[in-house]
Backbone:
């Protein structure tokens, strides 16, 4: 198996072994051999849901099994799976199972299961994917920043772009870059940014960030298949890349001037920081 596949299996095993303990995503990422930032992004792309959501769902499934047709106390099960109060546990339980914890204790109650993830090797790829490896000097961008949660970023970042374009922000920053940078693990900073010109004043509400010099894997694509390229980058290219590992806790979307005839045909690139494996 590739190192990333082994790391993901280690992470899943770690989660399963600690579902009744306080699980920190940072600790899960460590056994997967990547940073907390990259682990959460890769996990979401590969699985279709966040690691935090997976942990919650696994706990809810196990909690229901313990309550079903038993004399277990709801408060004891709630505390076992990390809930400080019966009320917060009941809200989460009802949202997941559609019935209350008390109702789940009744004989014949219908509850939902949520099986643990398993790594299954399968043949994937077989498609053309253009990329290049580049050395880039350090550069500084100026942009408009907003912090996003890993769980909701895919839905919220497009709204951020819409807001920026509609309220006149594009007159300050056109949006050459979409820059993702690690903030505190649970959240990350996203900047709609352009190249920074030192002679210009940074307007209120905007800030600068410097990207260090380094090696990048660059994936050219069209706007219409940006998400598809992003998925293939994580699911196909990275697991099969034997010469490089993930670098800094950031990645970049580069947007070329839009195609006036068809915005979907506009050129863009995904930049992934990497380091040579010694």
Residues:
């Amino acid at each position: 198996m590739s190192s990333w596949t082994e790391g993901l299996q280690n992470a899943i095993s770690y989660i399963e072994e600690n579902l009744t303990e306080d699980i920190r995503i940072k600790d899960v990422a460590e056994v997967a051999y990547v940073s907390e930032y990259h682990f959460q992004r890769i996990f979401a792309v590969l699985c279709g849901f966040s690691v935090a959501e997976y942990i919650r769902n696994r706990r809810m499934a196990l909690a229901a099994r313990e309550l079903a047709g038993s004399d277990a106390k709801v408060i004891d099960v709630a505390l076992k799976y990390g809930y400080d109060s019966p009320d917060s546990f009941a809200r989460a339980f009802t949202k997941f199972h559609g019935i209350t914890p008390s109702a789940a204790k009744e004989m014949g109650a219908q509850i939902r299961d949520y099986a643990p993830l398993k790594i299954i090797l399968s043949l994937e790829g077989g498609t053309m994917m253009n990329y290049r490896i580049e050395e880039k000097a350090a550069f500084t961008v100026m942009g408009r920043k907003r912090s996003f949660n890993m769980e909701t970023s895919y839905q919220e970042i497009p709204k951020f772009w819409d807001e920026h374009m509609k309220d006149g922000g594009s007159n300050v920053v056109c949006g050459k870059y979409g820059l993702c940078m690690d903030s505190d693990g649970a959240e990350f900073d996203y900047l709609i940014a352009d190249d920074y010109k030192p002679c210009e004043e940074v307007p209120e509400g905007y800030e600068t960030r410097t990207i260090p010099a380094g090696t990048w894997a660059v994936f050219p694509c069209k706007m219409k298949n940006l998400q598809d390229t992003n998925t293939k980058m994580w699911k196909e290219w990275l697991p099969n890349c034997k010469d490089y590992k993930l670098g800094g806790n950031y990645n970049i979307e580069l947007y070329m001037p839009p195609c006036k005839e068809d915005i979907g045909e506009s050129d863009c690139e995904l930049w992934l920081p990497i380091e040579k494996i010694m």
The radius of gyration is 22 Å.
